Amino acid sequence: MKTDVEIAQEIELREITAVASDMGISDEDLIPYGKYMAKVIPPSEKRNDLKKSKLILVTAITPTKAGIGKTTVSIGLAQGLNHIGKKATVALREPSLGPCFGMKGGATGGGYAQVLPMEKINLHFTGDFHAITTANNMIAALLDNYRYRHQKEEDGLKQILWRRVLDVNDRSLRNIISGLGAYTDGIPTETGFDITTASEIMAILCLAEDEEDLRRRIEKILLGYTYSGKPFTVKDLGVAGSIVVLLKDALLPNLVQTVEGTPAFVHGGPFANIAHGCSSVIATKTAMAYSEYVITEAGFGADLGAEKFINIKCRKAGLKPDLAVLVVTTQALKMHGGVEVKDIKHPNVEGLKKGFENMDKHIANLTSFGLNVLIAFNKYDFDTENEINLLKKHCEELGVAFAVNNAFAEGGIGAAELAHKTVEILEREADKPINFTYTDTDSVDVKIEKIAKNIYGANKVVFSDKAKKMFKRIAELGIENYPVCIAKTQYSFSDNDKRYGVPKDFEITVSDIIINNGAEFILAIAGNIMRMPGLPKEPQAQHIDIVNGKIVGLS
Q1: By CB neighbour count within 10 A (0-12 exposed, 13-18 middle, 19+ buried), where does 440 fall?
Q2: Which helix or strand (DSSP H or E) is residue 374 part of?
Q3: Cis, peptide link before residue 117, omega less than 30° from 0
Q4: According to DSSP H, which parts of 258-384 are helical?
Q5: Is 548 strand, coil or helix?
Q6: pLDDT by residue (tens digit) across 221-249?
Q7: Does residue 387 contact residue 347 with C-beta atoms inside 8 Å?
């Protein structure tokens, strides 16, 4: 089969004005970025009229390091729904340059289930990530300047919380000292960089309802503390307007298309292991204003992306998925069944069966949210009919719907079974109220414990002394009502990335608590998870190039 980039380069794209027109988006609400990409002005008058649209959340069992294909399934399902005569749109996150040049090589789907133009989306796209990076670092520069200018005054800064960001995996920047040199070069400070996807600015952009809400949230960002112990925010710095100016265009959702011309909103990109892992509220609601069905994806396994989608995004944006599609592969099941990673592409019935436990735990978690669940088996060419039938039978015994997805190889036709099953469930099953894992009034430590025990299956949460001190600070700020976002490895229910399957009798260790006051959630760091990833021994950057005027190596 051709590579992803070869397939993408052979597709004759529709002009984005035509894609928008078919959706009902007028030229006045479209800001083209060339022929095939555009920003869309959200239809504020339609945002409250979302009940006509069905929201479908695509999530997954605990993935392997090779991924599991959620994006491919999401795109394929949207194409499949359009193939059977429905009006569907997919809403995805933007790829980060870090993974593109690191582990993945791209994040726009695969095969005949891709969003296009994939090279532009995977690289600089419409500049959203650059705007977020610049806005974040502009705050850092202005904050350092304030500290330098007011260092001998009562309202000077005793503690700095804000870090710089970069959309590149660079382990050398995790911990640094800035301000070295002459006195005029600044105040020496122990600090560091996070990846752009972990920036609070990214979270704010993805959770903001509109420009007014964006400004409100930016003003609230907690930057540090003064000598008198007073919290110091962006509003105190007096630069919220400047930051909104930098983010004004980035706030607008991006419209592109799939290989089959299906509309796709690609906007925002927080990672689900170190942030809240969902595309923007604005993109989701804009898609719902123009479509019968909206398919959206939450990052990594359902213990991360889906949990945060429900407990953070849905809680704050008033959304509720009508269906959860849980992506499953034989590779992932076998890995969780104890099969060596190097052997997971080979038939292994016993390993497959043992891996069902991981899927079953994710199903139980999703149903606990009040969601109907559909298993999407993401088919690879090495999968055997015997293995597929075993999985199908297991799902039947559980009373959970099952469908095979072959969109990678066949596009929308290959997702027709999944599309029909989706429509069948949505037409048959009654709407259920959403169940959050915790209440707003629960204390922060209780919220963390409820996620760890009820979603991960931990028997205990251990808080470091540093984390315990933060609970007092949170109480002093009066923000105990915020939801929590746990940063944790994506490869296990536990905080140990080597404990596959469904670990038993384990503890979750919370090493630090970070206040994201503008994003309006509390970030809990579990285990040794880092917010600035490193590069692998052989990064994908070694394989990306331009040959005869065409980009190769993106996949």
Answers
A1: exposed
A2: strand 373-378
A3: yes
A4: 281-290, 307-308, 315-317, 330-336, 349-368
A5: coil
A6: 999 999 999 999 999 999 999 999 999 99
A7: yes
DSSP codes, 511-542: EEEEEETTTTEEEEEETT--SS----SS-GGG
Looking at residue 181, the DSSP 8-state letter turns out to be: S
Q: What pLDDT score does 229 carry?
A: 93
Structure tokens at 391: 């999985």
Question: Residues 501, 336: contact at Cβ < 8 Å?
Answer: yes
**509: closest CA among 448, 464, 453?**
464
Copy the structure tokens of residue 432: 């259920």
Q: What is the pLDDT of residue 429?
A: 83
What is the distance between the alpha carbons of residues 188 and 193, in angstroms, rounded to a whole number?
A: 15
> What secondary structure, in 3-state letters, does 183-211 show?
HHHCCCEEECEEEHHHCHHHHHHHHCCCH
- Which residues neighbour 507 within 8 Å (Cβ) at sequence distance 6 or greater? 458, 459, 460, 461, 462
What is d(CA 494, CA 457) in angstroms, rounded to the nearest whole number? 8
Alpha-carbon gap, residue 119 to 554, rounded angstroms: 7
The type of residue at 361 is: K
> Reduced to 3 states, what is the DSSP secondary structure of residue 401?
strand
Question: How many Å apart are CA 336 and CA 352, to the nearest integer?
Answer: 8
The tokens of 248 are what? 């004004």
Q: Please state whether beta strands 109-110 and 113-116 pair in parallel, antiparallel, or not at all (unpaired).
A: antiparallel
Nearest Cα neighbor of 98 from 171, 163, 37 is 171
Q: Spell out the domains of the chain, with CATH numbers in brackets.
A: 4-126+250-428 (3.40.50.300), 129-247 (3.30.1510.10), 444-526 (3.10.410.10)
Phi/psi for 446 (5° steps) reads -70, -40
For residue 518, what are its two tokens? 């503008």
Q: Whose CA is closest to 424, among 47, 84, 33?
A: 84
Using alpha carbons, list the distances in angstroms from residue 56 to 287, 291, 310: 12, 12, 12
If one counts every other C-beta atom within 10 angstroms of the C-beta of residue 269, the result is 28
Q: How far apart are CA 344 and CA 335, in angstroms?
A: 6
The residues of the chain scoring below 50 in pLDDT are none
Please state, in angstroms and rounded to a whole number, the distance separating the CA atoms of residues 420 and 81.
8
**Cα–Cα distance measured from residue 248 to residue 246, given in angstroms and rounded to the nearest whole number:** 6
DSSP 8-state secondary structure symbol assigned to residue 440 = T
d(CA 221, CA 247): 15
- Structure tokens, 525: 């760091």
H or E segment at 58?
strand 54-60
Q: Which of 346, 350, 306, 311 is nearest to 327 (CA)?
A: 306
Across the strands, what pairs with 77?
A: none
Task: Pull the structure tokens for residue 496.
Answer: 């140990």
How far is the first Cα of the chain from the last one, in angstroms, to the nearest whole number? 13
